[in-house]
Write a structure and sequence with these properties.
Strands 10, 12, 15, 16 and 17 form a five-stranded antiparallel β-sheet that branches. Strands 23, 25, 28, 29 and 30 form a five-stranded antiparallel β-sheet that branches. The chain is mainly beta and 337 residues long. The protein is rod-shaped, with a radius of gyration of 46 Å. A hairpin with a 5-residue loop joins β3 and β4. It folds into four domains: 64 residues, no CATH class; 102 residues, Immunoglobulin-like (Sandwich), CATH 2.60.40; 95 residues, Immunoglobulin-like; 59 residues. This is Flagellar hook-length control protein FliK. InterPro entries: Big_12, Sialidase_sf. It comes from Limnohabitans planktonicus II-D5. Keywords: Cell projection, Cilium, Flagellum. It holds the Pfam family Big_12.
């Protein structure tokens, strides 16, 4: 009897009967197909026990759906163009298009590296799903792909869905940073310092107008490595004496991806280009024989390398100068000749 049965889109196991009237077998549909029109047909090639030929028989229609749903995952900008990179402040529309309507699908079935998804929603009965993808802050990762997890969803016939992934997208929401160093942090007369500004990555839109300099001037900054390291020369302002100074970079520059840079400042540097001054006083300005006078020299600031050799005392002699504890006042005795 098995040879008398024609089966569409599937296989039929061996038919068995206990009374010769009712025959049973197991029908197994073929995999990966979808067909709504199918029948099982019994040919007239069988007969009863006395040889009478049987009539053709046909089952009622049955539907076969063993095809798993598939998906296409895309990221697009507001104009519908593919989005392959995202920077700070940007977002993209995620669209997941299934081959047919699905059920049991939600955000839990989607992996979105280095970002977050708004709630997925469908307006066409479960075939097309959309959400907004927002990249995480302070991230710089070039290889990312949003994926739909296999088997987490199914079509309306309960066939488990296949995995799917978007094209690669890069996330760069990490703003550049900078460090500022001076080759000399204690500048005196005739000195200058090399200023080196090193960014965490190459930057654009950067120049001297982005740098604030205290008590001096900075030569035109230049880079020889494409925008990561910038060098200039700092010359302090003449006549300046200031122990507290910093050089600052504003946040007006960006990296190549367009992320805004962070402001920063150098370590403190001191400037002392102001020459010390001195006043000289004698305790007696009209000396007679046998008299002497105390000579007091008061400096505007502490000095070094000072001695009697620096003093001219006509018509008399000076004892060795001694300094006060703060180094500002020096005294000696003048004895006229």
């Amino acid at each position: 009897l098995y040879e008398d049965v024609t089966v569409q889109n599937g296989t039929l196991g061996t038919l068995v009967s206990t009374d010769g009237i009712v025959w049973t077998g197991t029908y197994t549909p073929n995999v990966n197909l979808e067909d709504t029109t199918n029948v099982i047909t019994l040919a007239n090639t069988y007969s009863d026990l006395i040889g009478n030929a049987g009539a053709v028989g046909t089952s009622g229609n049955y539907s076969v759906d063993t095809k798993a749903p598939s998906a296409v995952v895309t990221l697009q900008d507001a104009q519908g163009a593919p989005m392959t990179s995202l920077t700070a402040g940007q977002s993209a529309q995620l669209t997941i298009t299934f081959s047919e309507a699905v059920k049991d699908f939600s955000n839990a079935d989607v992996t979105a590296p280095n970002g977050t998804l708004s709630t997925l929603a469908s307006t066409d009965g479960g075939t097309t799903w959309t959400a907004t993808f927002t990249p995480n802050a302070n991230v710089e990762v070039a290889a990312n792909s949003i994926s739909v997890n296999p088997g987490a969803y199914s079509d309306l016939a309960a066939n488990a869905g296949a995995a799917a992934s978007s094209a690669n997208y890069a996330v760069d929401t990490q703003g550049p940073t900078a460090t500022i160093t001076l080759s000399d942090n204690a500048l005196t007369a005739g000195e200058s310092a090399q200023v080196t500004i090193v960014f965490s990555e190459k930057v654009t839109g950067f120049g001297n107008t982005d740098v604030a300099v205290e008590n001096g001037t900075l030569s035109t900054l230049a880079t020889t490595d494409g925008g990561k390291t910038w060098v200039g020369s700092f010359t302090p302002t003449a006549g300046t004496a200031d122990a507290s100074n910093v050089m600052s970079v504003a946040n007006s520059y960006t990296d190549v991806a367009g992320n805004q840079g962070a402001s920063t400042s150098s370590a403190n540097y001191a400037i002392d280009l102001k020459a010390p001054t001195a006043s000289i006083a004698l305790s007696d300005n009209a000396l007679k024989a046998g008299e002497s006078a105390t000579v007091t020299i008061t400096f505007s600031e502490k000095v070094k390398d000072f001695s009697n050799a620096d003093i001219t005392a006509p018509n008399g002699a000076l004892s060795t100068f001694t300094a006060s504890t703060d180094g500002l006042i020096w005294t000696a005795t003048f004895i006229p000749a």
